[in-house]
Amino acid sequence: MAGLETPPLSAPGSRTLPPQVLTIAGSDSGGGAGVQADIKSIQANGAFALSVLTSITAQNTKEVTTAFDLPLRVIEAQLAAVFDDFDLSAVKTGMLSSKGIVKRVSLLLKQRPVKNLVVDPVMVSKSGYPLLKPDAVALVKSELIPLAALVTPNIHEAELLAGMEIRNLCEAEEAARKIFAFGCRAVLVKGGHLLQQRGCDLLFDGETATVLKGEFIETQNTHGTGCTYSAAIAAHLAHGKPLGRAVESAKNYVTEAIRHALPIGHGHGPTDHFYFLSPPAV
Length: 282
Known about the structure:
By secondary structure, this protein is of the alpha/beta class. The protein has a domain at 20-148 and 223-259: Ribokinase (UDP-N-acetylmuramoyl-L-alanine:D-glutamate ligase, 3-Layer(aba) Sandwich). 34% of the residues lie in helices and 17% in strands. It contains eight helices and nine strands. The strands form two sheets. Strands 3-2-1-4-5-6 form a six-stranded mixed beta sheet. A three-stranded antiparallel beta sheet has the order 7-8-9, with helices on one face. Strand 8 (201-204) and strand 9 (209-212) form a beta hairpin. It starts with 19 loop residues before the first strand and ends in a 23-residue tail after the last helix.
């Protein structure tokens, strides 16, 4: 059409494309956790986010009211569509909900192995709604965790996986060693719920236990922090960072996202995944 010009095309190879990172998780209608948080976190940390939905939840900052698991054939079709067309540098898993979903996702990830698989063993929402059925926990241990480059349980999840109480970093290390024995390459026990040394995480790679000291920020607006943290780690691994640096970078990011958390809704508000962006001028 007259008056319209086509923008100039970049020369082939002149642009560095971001690494591609897949999240396999449930949807949060409140936007602060789940796939929505993962996509924001992956993009904020310089990677391109792809997604496979496993479940649809009805939730807000106050509670999860119900959840619906997608049919296995739909989950499998999504995974096939992504793997058949994209060059993935990392994958993270979140809410897998049932034995059937854990088993099917684990099988498909065995068939299409990825170098950087981050497993966030999502089990219970902040409001106490079960996001992983009890009979699926054993399959997470035997089928999914052995595929992982990193498993990222919070204290409550680590207690359930390791079968022990965790009150301090020494007990966190013991739990990490037990989880490592399931076959993964590393374990990060997140310390936001530690009774002692709050805000410190423990990373165990099979040889060395490293304490990542952090600032504990007093706020109720922490919805989706676990999803955000694990997704950010996946993004940094996708950029080629070694594990320790990837975790450190992601921890710094999630700390600032919490510091700038958004007091929206009437419960636990979400973090601000794009805290570093200036609001548009009015």
